[in-house]
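Milestone M4 deliverable, item 7.
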Amino acid sequence: MTGITTRSMPLLVVENRAFGNRSFCAINEGLGKVMRFGGNDAEVLARLAWLRDEFGPLLGKALRASAVALNPLIARGLAMGDEMHQRNVACTSLLLRSLAPTLARVGNAHSLEKAFAFIAGNDQFFLNVAMAMGKSILDPARGIEGSSVVTAMARNGTDFGIRVAGRGDEWFTAPVEMPKGLYFPGFSAADANPDIGDSAILEAIGLGAFSMAAAPAVAGFIGAGGFADALAYTRAMSELTVGQNNTWAIPALEFRGVPIGIDVRRVVETGIQPAINTGIAHRRAGVGQVGAGVARAPLACFEKALRALDRP
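Output delivered:
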């Protein structure tokens, strides 16, 4: 659940126009046998070549001709049942709807058929867009003196790390935990890798598990319970943040904004570990995703960050 970025690989670019910074992410390859799950056979390499040679240039032409505003798209996705981490059905559909006219203008029939089929057949296509957006939102907060707001969360299968605004680019790490969830047929917890991936950037901006109340269907998919449990997750995560983003409203909570700005002080004070909606990878490279669940950020990361913030 990481992957390799080469100089020839097309990247999605998200621009934070309020602050002028940009963030980047590779194009989501889909589910199953893909590079980010360790796949590297002829099928995987052929898809990467197609993304490089055909799909990437086509998508680039379309986006340069007509950029997509993500704030309103996220707001609509939340109202349609997405939380943007494990459920991106609505936002992927909305993005395709937004891109289709421009893609049709800049592409040919053959390239369009494959491009539309690729996006429409990958419910998680929007995930990588959302990840780049999350980083573009949080990067401008790095270096705010004294701020205890988390600006990044990531895990590599061994360690979990966070960055905090008041400590710039410094990482605070602790051993990563195992996710808990549901497994695809034929797999069990014995097959699971410890929590891994960069997509926890979404929880850092109030999406994913922090917005589970907007996507109750996800709760069942990841083994987190039902509708009441989805509401409880969002309410609990609200205890950890400095505020809410009213641009992104959750209908099931009387259109309250998503909780945003994880505060290390509140995490340590409450003892509540931030929740992360996540895919579960097989512990052996190349097998792919074997389930989905909820992981928890280890408290030790936040305790280390808080001690560092309190140092002169």
